[in-house]
Specification:
Elements (H helix, E strand, L loop, with lengths): L3 H21 L4 H8 L3 H29 L1 H20 L4 H20 L1 H8 L3 H32 L4 H4 L1 H15 L23 H31 L4 H7 L2 H21 L1 H19 L8 H28 L7 H36 L4 H30 L3 H8 L1
Helix pairs in contact: 1-5, 1-6, 1-7, 1-9, 3-4, 3-5, 3-15, 4-5, 4-9, 6-7, 6-15, 7-11, 7-12, 7-14, 10-14, 10-15, 10-16, 12-13, 12-14, 13-14, 13-16, 15-16
Length: 414
């Protein structure tokens, strides 16, 4: 099928656009607050409105794709997301922006929940599927970091409206191509007795294990991103744009490993070994960050960890995504895709809450003891990094114990 690479590009471009939107707006929040008069507490709803609907509808959207057809759900979600992006960009007050962000999150969930299921259907051959999942995994792994860079650039060179307007040309072009390139699928039909989350998929060892690993991995890494952004700005004194570019080595490393080497590594050594090794490298990088100092230097204290982390994550993510879809029946591909995306959101919420509270608690204790602010902040961040490293080490342990190589799984599934 000569059109398959282009169809894959469309699916991954939309997935990247949706992932970007979770972080691209973060850098623009001060400008949005100034223009629309948000208070510090109400400003959080610009982010939360998107995340609530996005995370809450992923599982429903994935199952809906199984029942009525994944192409229909994907196109509907993409259209809603693109329209909502336009409405967010022209929002004239706080209420409008928050309402349109809810709508944008719903469209993002519909579009992204079925992408992985569509890719596995589009590429039934194991090696070709592994390579395609590597491309998709890059969009998931590097999207947030790219969003920070894009958000800072657009806000500084233009204004906050363009963090939403940038989605319009991508969305319109992707919609036109998707209508022509993606094969239609009818789905199994709306049957009243069909559960939202069929428990049979959890009998697959790969699905259960992969989703457990995903929660642990994302909890550690999403919290790491939050904490590192604070360390770079509040301790090393980088501005918003500088902070965005400081993260650039991570997505570059992810791209090199996931797009160039991941498929060959998985084919030669097996997904489980690659996953465990990748997670171990990420844990090592986080352990390195747990030694940062208040008078630290980006080039020597942060950059090496970002490169190592990107390499480990670039190897781990494609292997994990492949495991999450391994042995899943075609009729359940949508719900399996939605499930692994949902566990990402759960892990992100857990990681941010746990690590932020741990860092704040340690910083507060140090301040109470009379420690200067930079040293107190750094002490809190070191605790958070150590917890992140522990979560990744636990993820590697679960992957080593629970998951199996592909050939063994296929025998069990058969």
């Amino acid at each position: 099928m000569p059109q398959r690479p282009l169809a894959l590009a469309v699916l991954c471009a939309v997935s990247l656009m949706v992932v970007l939107d979770g972080s691209i707006v973060a850098v623009a929040l001060p400008s949005i607050q100034n223009d629309l008069g948000f208070t510090s507490s109400s400003l959080a709803w610009v982010v939360n409105a998107y995340l609530i609907t996005f995370g809450g509808l992923l599982l429903v959207s994935g199952r809906l794709g199984d029942l009525i057809g994944r192409k229909r759900v994907f196109l509907a979600g993409l259209a809603v997301f693109t329209l909502a992006s336009l409405l967010c960009g022209i929002a004239a007050d706080q209420t409008q922006l928050i309402v349109f962000r809810f709508l944008q999150g719903a469209g993002g969930a519909l579009a992204s929940a079925v992408v992985l299921g569509m890719i596995t259907t589009l590429y039934p051959e194991p090696r070709a599927r592994a390579k395609a999942i590597g491309v998709y995994s890059f969009t998931q792994a590097a999207g947030s970091s790219i969003g920070l860079i894009a958000g800072g650039t657009l806000t500084q060179l233009l204004d906050w409206h363009w963090t939403f307007f940038v989605n319009l040309p991508i969305g319109v072009i992707a919609l036109a191509l998707a209508v022509r390139l993606l094969d239609p699928d009818r789905g199994t039909g709306l049957r009243g007795g069909e559960p939202l989350l069929p428990l049979r998929i959890f009998r697959l060892r790969a699905v259960s294990g992969a989703n457990t690993v995903m929660i642990l991995m994302v909890a550690g890494l999403f919290g790491f991103q939050f904490i590192t952004a604070l360390y770079l700005q509040r301790v090393l004194r980088l501005d918003a744009l500088g902070t965005g570019f400081a993260f650039l080595p991570a997505p570059v490393s992810i791209a090199v490993i996931s797009l160039v080497f991941a498929e060959r590594l998985n084919h030669r050594f097996g997904a489980r070994k690659v996953l465990v090794t990748g997670l171990s490298l990420v844990a090592l990088a986080l352990g390195f960050l747990a030694t940062v100092e208040a008078d630290g230097n980006y080039a020597t204290d942060v950059l090496p960890a970002l490169v190592l982390m990107g390499a480990g994550f670039g190897a781990a993510m494609p292997a994990l995504m492949g495991q999450a879809m391994s042995g899943v029946a075609p009729a359940d591909a949508g719900v399996a895709s939605g499930l692994i995306n949902t566990t990402q959101q759960i892990g992100a919420a857990i990681g941010t809450a746990v690590l932020a509270n741990a860092a704040a608690s340690r910083t507060g204790s140090l301040l109470a003891e009379g420690t200067a602010m930079p040293e107190a902040l750094t002490g809190g961040y070191r605790v958070a990094y150590a917890l992140s490293a522990g979560l990744l080490a636990l993820a590697a342990f679960v992957a080593a114990v629970v998951l199996r190589d592909r050939k063994a799984q296929e025998v069990i599934v058969a």
